[in-house]
Structure of GTP cyclohydrolase 1 type 2 homolog:
Amino acid sequence: MSTDQPSRTPHPTVQDVVRAADALWPFRLQESWDASGLVTGRPGAVVRRIHFAVDPVDGVVREAVDAGADMLLTHHPLLLRGITSVSAEGFKGRAIHDLVENRCALLCCHTNADAARRGVSDALIATCGVNPDDAAPLVPHATDPAVGLGRVGTLERAVTLRELAERLAARIPQGVQGLRVAGDPERRVSTVAVCGGSGDSIFDEVREHGADVFVTADLRHHPASEARERAVGPGGHGTPALIDATHWGSEAPWLPWAAKDLQRLLAERGFHVETHVSGLRTDPWDFRVTAAPQDQD
């Protein structure tokens, strides 16, 4: 009687997953201040299931552990600033303890995933309706100008600013803020610039590319006010209009891409892994209050 067992595709190790992530979203592309990379996990530990999320917050860690994940892959780093203790008395230390004690590695892909092709900004501009293959970086990387921060491209068909905002509202996860929009709602827009996450530091690049509208998040009062004054003041041409999403919502469209791309690459390398995208809303705001209409005498 034959004792041969059916062949099974092996699972990757933590190190295998990190190498695949580096191939997709090269860690060399991260900004100098960033902290992308492996945070917890033994390189040789087996990974059967990977959980994807934007933020490594307590709820996401619990979700990953409860799902039996061997790795949590997040966009935002857990340890971006220096710390002197990982005691479980603090929320960062507690997250590390929960991950380690449940044998769940943590891998963070932050600005490297912002810059890389099929990264955060490619996913956001695709959500706007621009083919990411035809989009260019707003800020090309110093060593590889084919990639970089932000994207700019052209819609297949011009739409009104209102239509673009409504399209985004239907396609990206919403926080309590919704979408804030500056510009004439009936003005037609064609050239779209995007930057997943906080993008008000690259207004100059947006203007240099002649974008009709800039889609980003975390727009602060003064940069947004100055951008609007330039657009509508003497000599202005109404551009760029602004669409301000939540930070989390502008980056979440990348997660399904990341899960699919990482699973595919690992399969090409002979490994099998399950992937799952978090359904938690990790935008920090819980509700908003507006004044009730005042009765008119």
Remarks:
- The chain has two domains: 14-113+252-277, 117-245.
- The radius of gyration is 21 Å.
- Confidence is low (pLDDT under 50) at residues 1-7.
- The first strand starts at residue 37 and ends at 40.
